[in-house]
Amino acid sequence: MSTEVVQQYETAKADSNWGLLSWFASVDHKRIGLLYMLLAVFFLVIGGVEALLIRVQLAVPNNTFLSPQFFNQLFTMHGTTMVFLVGMPVFTGFANYLIPLMIGAKDVAFPRLNAMSFWMLPFGAVLLYWSFLTGSAPDAGWFSYAPLSTKPYSSLPGVDYWIISLAVMGIGSVAGAINIAATVICCRAPGMSLQRVPLFVWIMLMQAILILITIPPLNSALAMLLIDRWLGAAFFEPARGGSALLWQHFFWMFGHPEVYVFALPAFAMVSEVIPVFSRKPIYGYAFVAGSSSVIVLLSYGVWAHHMFAVGLGMGANIFFAAATLLIAIPTGIKIFNWTATLWGGSIRCTTAMLFAIAFLVQFVVGGLTGIMFATVPIDWQLTDTYFVVAHFHYVLIGGIVFALFAATYYWFPKITGKMLDERLGKIQFWLWVIGFNGTFGVQHFLGFMGMPRRVYTYADHPGWATLNAISSVSAFFMAAGTLVLVWNVISSLLRGSTAGANPWDAFTLEWFTTSPPPVENFESLPEIKSRRPVWDANHPEQADWKTSTTPADNGHRPDKAKTSAWAFVVSEAIFFILLLVAYVVFNARVEDASGPTSETALNVLRTGIFSVFLLSSSVSFWLAERHLSRGDTTGFRKYLAMTILLGVVFLVGQAIEYNELIQDGVTINRNLFASTFFTVTGFHGLHVTGGLVALSIMLLMARKGYLTPKRSKVFGAIGVYWHFVDVVWIAVFTIIYLGFLQ
């Protein structure tokens, strides 16, 4: 272990004596994982209260318990809270806590980045809920459809708070995903090849990749909406030439893959719980792992099945219907794998296992109703009814929340060293099964009967009152079940039985250390020769490696700095691609445009000259990197300074262009060309500026003797980003200045 890592853990041990302050200052992955979970629990209570208030309002026809305005605010805040402040944090918390333990690592790849990623979430949450104090919480729905979310329809600041808070939380989510990916790829213990990692680790790696490609569409849409609202642009205002459908496309490019961001961790959890309590390895490890990868690949091709009713055309409808049916296949494969694992197993009906089995049943129901929506005529009939509400919650609660409960009962002994009470667990299980199916099962019938979603009240139509009353009363069963879990946790922490290191006789590495684990995670590791190293260590006569071989670990681990840089570049590339898509959409028919266009407003020759300076900076950076690797610090500093100078010259050129355009009256709110031009080039300029700051820090470190050939990989990681900025500018110049694709 390096001196730096040793010092880090000595500091962490000392910090454990600081009391409560140590939790705020900690970089230990286990504490940060617990902070994620506690944050999610806190907002689960808030989101749950919001849901109960909604159900009270809908319990009887023509109810006046809530005003229409406050109902819309609760509806928006409930959805936003449950997605961004409950679902994503709780899964990130489990990943933070468990992945380093499962792969035999001391911590995540970047502990300080991990802490920053977490603290972005409560900061974003404060921004979101601060809107209530302004008297105007966001009320445009948690997907904020345009033009309802634009200034003419939502003039109060609630939507602004919503946009900024989601952007802040999105930054934290992307940083966290980069860290998880780098940890799995670069920090595995010797012997732990990628083909031997637990399914939880592999599937969470797929989830991290999915976050990296899912958040950028939302960020690009949020950026354009904020520019609309603050700077007077009109990306999403049809009355001024904008497109409300563009918001839907961008949002659902985030929104539907986001379902798999939630579903994949649930798959990961039950893939660990079911084999342990069936007392056998999971059936078809390769199929479960492979189908998870396929979901990531296909998830970007199904977003528009949320938009069948907007008139995309027959060709688009057929394509997205087929893609929706296709993506059901890898999910169905998992269902068969889990069922086959149960078949013939020595099943132990613990509370964790009961929740895992309930997950299977209820997720299948949610999946089957999802397949129904792939049939376009059925979607047309049901798309804005309570059938959608039922389907959505059967996936996200009936599936995912039940998997979370299974994981809670399974890993609680490892995290706390105490066992949860099984009798209370089974009471909670039945309260949730009855409450969940009573709440959302009847909503399928309300949808068939035509009850629209997103309404604050309804007329006394035949059958509606009875079914809504059942739904509302049943919701309190879930609340009661949650209170049982809270009592179970508190009482178990106070007087629960001691768990021991491995109370379930489980298989994976987290069960090889103490419960709870020490700061450094492990005193020693078993030899890793199969996918179940703890089983091999505890049952050497039945060791997996004797009967089932897996690809050996070649010992190679990529550099974590460059790995994280490439992950960040992938995410930012998608962000820029979508901004350029918006530019092309709004500027493809220049003959219909009014006001300035790229042909009339831009000086292509002058910008081309300044572009040469930026592109030349990639060459000078490459030369600086070569000199650093050879130990030539003088040459390194010279070429690095040249790189910074070339970047500054480019920014000066952009400033000159901006000044002339503004002097000519071409401002961001002039027309859609100006809006898209300033947005794309402005964000690129921000990225160049960020790169110059990083390069300047490197130059300062080099002058003080801190940047040596041994640390050249860190400099190379910055190079990945700098070359990416140059490549983006090639695309920007080609499309905007040279008119390609227009």
Automatic annotation (TrEMBL):
Q: Which reaction does it catalyse?
A: 4 Fe(II)-[cytochrome c] + O2 + 8 H(+)(in) = 4 Fe(III)-[cytochrome c] + 2 H2O + 4 H(+)(out)
What's the main place this protein lives? membrane
Chain ranges of the Cytochrome oxidase subunit I profile domain:
23-529
Q: Which Gene3D superfamilies match?
A: Cytochrome c oxidase, subunit III, four-helix bundle (1.20.120.80), Cytochrome c oxidase-like, subunit I domain (1.20.210.10)
Q: State the pathway, as annotated in the record.
A: Energy metabolism; oxidative phosphorylation
Give the EC number(s) listed in the UniProt record.
7.1.1.9
Top enzyme class of this protein? Answer: translocase
Membrane-crossing residue ranges in chain numbering = 34-54, 74-101, 113-132, 161-187, 199-227, 247-270, 282-302, 308-329, 350-374, 386-409, 429-449, 469-490, 565-585, 605-624, 636-656, 676-702, 714-740
Localisation: Cell membrane
One Gene Ontology cellular component annotation? plasma membrane
UniProt keyword Transcription, yes or no: no
NCBIfam families, alphabetized: CtaD_CoxA (TIGR02891)
Tell me the protein family, please. Answer: Belongs to the cytochrome c oxidase subunit 3 family. Belongs to the heme-copper respiratory oxidase family.
Functional summary from the UniProt entry = Cytochrome bo(3) ubiquinol terminal oxidase is the component of the aerobic respiratory chain of E.coli that predominates when cells are grown at high aeration. Has proton pump activity across the membrane in addition to electron transfer, pumping 2 protons/electron. Cytochrome c oxidase is the component of the respiratory chain that catalyzes the reduction of oxygen to water. Subunits 1-3 form the functional core of the enzyme complex. CO I is the catalytic subunit of the enzyme. Electrons originating in cytochrome c are transferred via the copper A center of subunit 2 and heme A of subunit 1 to the bimetallic center formed by heme A3 and copper B.
The annotated subunit structure for this chain is:
Heterooctamer of two A chains, two B chains, two C chains and two D chains.
Protein name as catalogued: Cytochrome c oxidase subunit 1
- Species source reads Aeoliella straminimaris
Q: Which gene encodes it?
A: ctaD
